[in-house]
Amino acid sequence: MFIIGELINGMYQNIGKAIVEKNKEVIQKCALEQIAAGADALDVNCGTASKDPVLDIRWLIESIQEVSDAPLSLDSSKPKVIESGLQVIKNTPIINSTTADPEKLGVLLPLAIKYKAKLIGIAISAKGIPQNKDQRIELAANIVATASEMGFPLEDLYLDPIVLPINVAQAQIMGILECIKEFKIISDPSPKTIVGLSNVSQGTNFRSLINRTFLVMAQAFGLDAAILDPTDLQLMEGLITAELALNKQIYCGSYLDAYKKK
Ligand code: THG
Description:
Layout (H helix, E strand, L loop, with lengths): L1 E4 L7 H9 L2 H13 L4 E4 L8 H13 L6 E4 L3 H8 L7 E5 L3 H13 L3 E5 L10 H17 L7 E4 L12 H11 L8 E5 L10 H14 L4 E4 L4 H13 L9 H6 L2
Parallel strand pairs: 1-2, 1-8, 2-3, 3-4, 4-5, 5-6, 6-7, 7-8
Helix pairs in contact: 2-3, 3-4, 6-7, 8-9
Bound molecules: (6S)-5,6,7,8-tetrahydrofolate.
The site of (6S)-5,6,7,8-tetrahydrofolate has 18 residues, from strand 4 and strand 5.
């Protein structure tokens, strides 16, 4: 599983405050903690706290890059913010994200090609979030078709069905899980799959329990990557144990420690 740490997001109060006050120690500590906990990459999202995300995303990236060379995922719905970040990123960038809207694809695919970035494509259209599995698959297929036409390597494309909170969209959860399996057969070579995990538990009690239960189910459907909180120890232990059951790790008495040292 490719793990993208979700915690550098202006949506979190401490990070929003650090962005406004330009307190880079808070950001650097958050970056290092997530990496120590097992993150392979870090999501970077200015959130709504930022008045000038085009500049603030650069400040976030430069602050993180002073202490770590982990790959960064540029999380913004605004192509201008993503382009600004791409100009200062050192390691392979991840663009998070494009929708299936042709206008967005037309801007973000050429940027992904120019900067040799990985690209997350989310199953959302200009009309909004789909209401069922078939609509999600149709949007994902549109993204794959456009990426393929433009010569973007499909192994670098991560398709996201868009996870919704279980307390408002309970009837859609199984369809979202099935998308993870079906996205993989849209093309050969297969695109990869990703979810923003914590969406599933927003507004609920027992957030951590809901996150880790959904993650293990998504892993059984073939999930390749997740944006999640790597400092949630029980979540990470569930993730590692599911990889064992899926034959992606070799069992040994100390498999949890062995994975963490990888
Ligand atoms: N897909 C993709 N990118 C994404 C998402 C996705 N990026 C953003 C988001 N979804 C994933 N990241 C988060 C980060 C935080 C939370 C949820 C998803 C979260 N935050 C607390 C909340 O809203 O309750 C903040 C509470 C606090 O202030 O402590 O839940 O789906 N491609």
